[in-house]
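tool_call: predict_structure(chain=1)
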Amino acid sequence: MLNQVESTRLFIVLIPQSAAALIYLLISYILLKRKKDWLIYFLVSTYFHLFLVSIINNGFIVLILIDFQNTLIIKSLYYIISFLTLFGYIFLLLFIVLLYKTEITLTLKHCLIIILIYGAISILLIFIPDSISFNIEKNWNIQFSFIFMISVYIFFTLVIFIPMNIYSIRIYLSIEDGYLKKRFKYFLIGVLSFIFDLYGAILYNTWHNPIYRNIWSIITFFLLISSAILIYYGIVKNF
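tool_result:
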């Protein structure tokens, strides 16, 4: 019989994330059917990363629920989840930068270099000594160190959050059509929700306040689903 902690993970995390994964996969399919170019590929990569994170995280939870004994595999899965979560944002940033065509010339080679550098730094952050710890006795409770939280916050804010907002605002101000401007507002809300989810998730695994963790477990699901839909509705349907 499932205990209370396992039941919470099953109904608040496992089931909603399975539904979320299907939505991410569906949107990816719709995008690829609609148009195939590098701009769309970067946006699809964002959704596909969300899909992978949801699937792997569900696998992580299932292994815990069945009391899987290989700690190396479970820890490796969580490090992969952490990396993919942080890594997926670079594709959304590149999509927005490429969407803002004025005075910006980024070749595929430039984009690949940016992706590789961002990925390398993300890996280094995750492997900061004692950045992520696991409490096996408490159902594999994850604990992020304070140094890790601050490091990720600084890196993510400077590299993703600020540039993403700057270029999004520039695009918004350049739109003259009232209808398109309204639709782009939905895109902006979706992007901000997507970003806010990362900040909240990092805090979730750093600050183990029971009230915050219970509330955030519900909020994060709605944030990820709504942001994915708003980003799609706000801009992709115009392609």
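agent: The two ends are 50 Å apart (CA to CA). Proceeding to next step.
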